[in-house]
Formamidase (Alicyclobacillus acidocaldarius subsp. acidocaldarius), 1588 residues
Amino acid sequence: MNVRLSNVLFRVDLTKPMDQQEVPGHNRWHPDIPAVVHVKPGDVFRIEMKDWTDGQIQNNDDPSDIRDVDLCRVHVLSGPIYVDGAEPGDLLVVDLLDMGPLPGAEWGFNGIFARENGGGFLVDYFPEALKSIWEFQGIYAVSRHVPGVRIPSLIHPGLIGVAPSAELLDRWNARERQLVAKDPNRVPVLANLPDPRSAVLGTLRGAEFDRVAKEAARTVPPRENGGNCDIKNLSKGSRIYFPVFVKGAKLSVGDLHFCQGDGEITFCGAIEMSGWIEISVDVIKGGMAKYGIVHNPVFEPGPMEPRFSEYLVFEGVSVDERTGEQLYLDAHVAYRRACLNAIEYLQRFGYTAEQAYMLLGVAPVEGRISGIVDVPNACCTLAIPTAIFDRDIRPKG
Amino acid sequence: MNVRLSNVLFRVDLTKPMDQQEVPGHNRWHPDIPAVVHVKPGDVFRIEMKDWTDGQIQNNDDPSDIRDVDLCRVHVLSGPIYVDGAEPGDLLVVDLLDMGPLPGAEWGFNGIFARENGGGFLVDYFPEALKSIWEFQGIYAVSRHVPGVRIPSLIHPGLIGVAPSAELLDRWNARERQLVAKDPNRVPVLANLPDPRSAVLGTLRGAEFDRVAKEAARTVPPRENGGNCDIKNLSKGSRIYFPVFVKGAKLSVGDLHFCQGDGEITFCGAIEMSGWIEISVDVIKGGMAKYGIVHNPVFEPGPMEPRFSEYLVFEGVSVDERTGEQLYLDAHVAYRRACLNAIEYLQRFGYTAEQAYMLLGVAPVEGRISGIVDVPNACCTLAIPTAIFDRDIRPKG
Amino acid sequence: MNVRLSNVLFRVDLTKPMDQQEVPGHNRWHPDIPAVVHVKPGDVFRIEMKDWTDGQIQNNDDPSDIRDVDLCRVHVLSGPIYVDGAEPGDLLVVDLLDMGPLPGAEWGFNGIFARENGGGFLVDYFPEALKSIWEFQGIYAVSRHVPGVRIPSLIHPGLIGVAPSAELLDRWNARERQLVAKDPNRVPVLANLPDPRSAVLGTLRGAEFDRVAKEAARTVPPRENGGNCDIKNLSKGSRIYFPVFVKGAKLSVGDLHFCQGDGEITFCGAIEMSGWIEISVDVIKGGMAKYGIVHNPVFEPGPMEPRFSEYLVFEGVSVDERTGEQLYLDAHVAYRRACLNAIEYLQRFGYTAEQAYMLLGVAPVEGRISGIVDVPNACCTLAIPTAIFDRDIRPKG
Amino acid sequence: MNVRLSNVLFRVDLTKPMDQQEVPGHNRWHPDIPAVVHVKPGDVFRIEMKDWTDGQIQNNDDPSDIRDVDLCRVHVLSGPIYVDGAEPGDLLVVDLLDMGPLPGAEWGFNGIFARENGGGFLVDYFPEALKSIWEFQGIYAVSRHVPGVRIPSLIHPGLIGVAPSAELLDRWNARERQLVAKDPNRVPVLANLPDPRSAVLGTLRGAEFDRVAKEAARTVPPRENGGNCDIKNLSKGSRIYFPVFVKGAKLSVGDLHFCQGDGEITFCGAIEMSGWIEISVDVIKGGMAKYGIVHNPVFEPGPMEPRFSEYLVFEGVSVDERTGEQLYLDAHVAYRRACLNAIEYLQRFGYTAEQAYMLLGVAPVEGRISGIVDVPNACCTLAIPTAIFDRDIRPKG
């Protein structure tokens, strides 16, 4: 009778680390991590997942867990899921049918990482670790650390992707090594290279574990396989088309977010949570060539995003705010300035700069590249839905 | 009885260049360009404007006018409008009440600028000049050059801004000069410096004209005063809060767009048009300090944007697509790759690459900074509303 | 050069009554009213129209014109428009491409008709004539008679339809005569029967005029040909499929509304205005049988309706509020009670009952049949978008 | 640790009828049904509920359970919930924070009731019992009985209300008795009067049970206390303001719907389901008089309704389709005709009339009172979102 529960193909016990789960997941990308779940096109099934840090963060007011987080441990993923019939050159169609929290774990966290351990988009302004806890009240999240806002859920997996081929993995490792080599001692690092410490590789053991742990790519960046895209609009009802690089596609998922702002600017960056996801899969044979979807996934957002009609929008242009230096069409800097402008503004309504920063990380703000050709300034905008506040935050005469 | 027409405070004759209008506008930023229109807080009035090139582009199938456009002439603006009571430190509140085409000029153009004369976001892929003409059918635009799409209007001024103070103008010129000095012979240029050629400065004449023409900033980039932000969401009903830098604020407006995609990627980049705008103004005394709106304008979008529910979304990450080089959180490159992925895809549906490029320039596509902290890859997304096509463009099994 | 103006196929002079226009329109339905405009499938053209009363209402504060309005004069329509190739059994496809006010006439009116002359939905509560004037400020309308609200435009023709066949006209007249016969002296009347007084029949003159004037149906009700449907969602970009009953279809249009609430409850009921509409037409041969569209038109709303996200919703059930009598699934009464509940509520925010009544007539309120099977009570709801008010009108603790 | 589960204040066992639950609910309205749950303003809690028929309908292809359903058993409700501090004259504020199915019961049903046992809106056309089963796939429901559609969830309680006072209950019984007396033998009945058969009255037993069972109102109609409003927009995140008639308010809830069309036209009418709801409550002291909310509840819809942009809309006017009789502003008939027009149309796309009827019952269609003053015809519209179909259902040339 219990149809849905019998379809839970990957379970987690929140009291245990990922490598001690009955069926362990993984926290690296490698084609040789064995699949632990098998499904057929058309199957509907449920996957449970831990939060991205593997449970390192507690629901309390002490940010020391954020400061001391073991980032070698991230992101713990559920999978790989082997899809029958999927082969390199196909498109894997993944429908994200629904998502939610696990019973008894209806809360999430947002953190500002310290400069020495991860940093964030505005690390130069916010170098110290900080944490906010968000309690779920149905579709809303509220926080004792950021009062006066109620965030409607735009739940999504921050990380979902397929396994790379060996060739693709080599390419990732090569190009990221070259980047790090430009400034190997930079804090924060330019990229996280393969690192066997804290690696979790599913059922792999022994020499095979050691080999793969040395080669496997870290999960931090989004790449050709999808991965840690942190796209807030991959919410309920969305459909993703993944290029397939290995037999069975080997889909993995994790890093569930109750909500997130575009950019995920605090890095620990959304309302991070454990939970479950309901998925169905299909395969478009030969779809990569047929549709030219070869470099990155393509997706359709779902119909259940929270509806807003009013926004307050902050602009930023690509002039360095500290030096006054004129940069050339630098959207990164333009978006930073839009964020800083918003943080400046929100402080007029009683928020600390840190609260405002975390708020931009967790609220469903829209971050847009509005103009990218008007030399020399890129123009980026940050749109905050005004309905999340319990007061009117618009300027008044 | 003719209430509205008596409120047209700036008129244009489309058969004459801007400097030969009865009341000429301007195409440079400078505090000393005299105001030609005076209004009071609360006033509702109409401003007519020419297209941004001052009428250089014709409704025909020959792109040579795009290739040979005089870019020293851009952007011709209507104004400056002096607002009584506005002083430095205030916020100027501008309501964009309505906009539309001028009778008999219900068409617009999109152009790919040649590398030698402006270029665009994808100039390395599209170095030759090209043009598409868009005819307006009420709220829709259709093109004989890009068949199979019907674009609903998201009309907005690409350029709206207030005059800089002398001090601010000096800062602009200094920082842009420093940038150009890094690669003075680059094609396209890194920035357009002050240039008296083709300058139009309102009613200024003689020595004063010469002085101002040498100092005045070009209108190409968005800056602290707003300016050429090319924000597609500044459409009907939106409200902008401008920092005020000079007495009277000296608002100017131009570069009307029937519609535009985020990024305005072809540079001549929206559906460019002449037309009119209806505006009301107000002043928030001391608003800059009160709200911390000092670096850039803030705005609220209006309620009349076209409603879409289904999108096809392309992702891009910050790896150079030609060299494979890994870049560090480079949103510019990530957005370029998202655009290239979309262009690749649209060619499967019968479009040439050039048509797809122009389509992304003119359709109301959403360009988002989805992830900007997942080192080393920025992740940008480009969302195309599927309803603009006359067929289903989603992947099918 | 003046492309659009040359496509104005029907012009009006607002200073003259409809029968003295250069090309007169009509205010009755009859297959023998001659077409005055001819178009082909694919044509795009513009039609001007007077307000539905033929200019009887003035922009002033005196409601005597509402009280004394000649309702035999309504609705003055522009047309008929003959569409080449349209024949009985076809579907006429009409795209409403754009609409707007005529220059110098940027205002509209709402009226409560007196019981003795028309009445309205709540005539028992509001038996006296009253008027509110609405000035257009771009996409918004504001009124000195109903302060504190700003209504975004949802412009639409209250009346658009095709000519009936002689057989269909006979059926209308027969059934409406039978209804009136049930209570011939009722005030207001149960239906308006053919009445030659104040009839305008295009170019018809003499005996033919007299014959048609006696037979022609009044324009007040919506019927199989579309007609006075007063559907607020027939706004910019919508597409209507009309059954065709006579050769050439003979499309007519009028009764332009700047905005209206569902139900058009004050009868003179929207923000009534003169203006223009841009239309394109097409024909689906044999479409009536092919799609089973035979009794009434079918339509697709356009993409440009104002966006709201927050509503306050009032419920009503089918119990007579004066007698306490339980009615059986009576949606009319249920909607009346929802309206009365809203009017009661709005008075708590400083509006008079009359202002609240007119506000429900002109604002884009949603009137829904929520439950129609839960014997014995129909449940109707009235949803008011809260963003039209300049203050927060929600209940507070 | 299991925060949420400890907040389940009312549990159901789906294998047992409501009167055999550990804590039984009720299926009648009466002030003397004892509260079984107590909460304080500000509390967040979860309530489980059975489907409205108390589990009489099975997930199979045999409609005999629909035909033979015991309608004396409906609606089984969870509650009453006593809210501390709520007194007559107050407003009870109820936030519907989230809803969902119970594990293992992720399906629902729609039924056409037979004329002899309930009937429905179109009983004259569909007098025989029929059933469709809808399986939930995350936010979507699909049916083997109505192929080709996928319905996104607009989950809501069809029935939520507070207890009537004794005086109000008397009024209900008196007015409904008067209605039934007009045609006591009608099939279906005009109203369901108090009936002790199959009554469930919470913990009441013995003589008190017998007294209350004889007096208690049936739950079928919506009334002043809210009740069976079947408002599809009372979905996730909505807030209801109930008038309070008895001490403690005594809130009850049931009749969960996965989705429903406006009107709930098949009577068994939505996708009927068991499930849970998460609620928070508050009280506005003296709110009934302060806001004039005395006759019916008022509500604000939530932000999580599925987003659609394209609709096909069917119109209907108040002329009886069988006799041709002209009715006077009869919105009931006008909506019936709109529904019949839609059913006629959908048959062109391969649906049986019965499938189309059930589809209109379960899909999130909008039923609107578009015009209610244009004598003698009411005009109602039925808008179907086209995105629920797996093909394009618009008319084509």
Remarks:
- The longest strand of chain B covers residues 91-100.
- Chain B touches chain D at residues 307-310, 387, 392 (CB under 8 Å).
- Chain B has two domains: 5-300, 311-388.
